[in-house]
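pipeline: protein-struct stage 2 | run 1193 | VOC family protein
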Amino acid sequence: MKIIVTSIFVQDQEKALKFYTEKLGFVKKEDVPVGEFRWITLVSPEAKDGTELLLEPNQHPAAKEYQKRIYSEGIPAMMFGVEDIHHEYKRLMETGVTFTMEPTKAGEVTIAVFDDTCGNLIQIVQK
């Protein structure tokens, strides 16, 4: 058994698609109409057959509440691994990404947190 798709709730699928592809550099894998919304998945350009990230509409009241609560508590909704966190931090800052935590050593890893503009805090980590 392996993880093939994981999801993140987003307030606006189109805005999220632009942010995750244009700012973060993910690649769109699937974009299929599903009723009022779309099944949009992204992959890392480094692992095009790897785990897909589904941009899940947060239309259900429980999803909205969950997203709102973890954001207000400063809890990242997702974690992405990077090879060089200081390089990624600088690159993302140059594209206008807003960080809520700059690269910070936390034991054996270094972490940073940014706002995805779609209702989530995202953590990047370098092991």
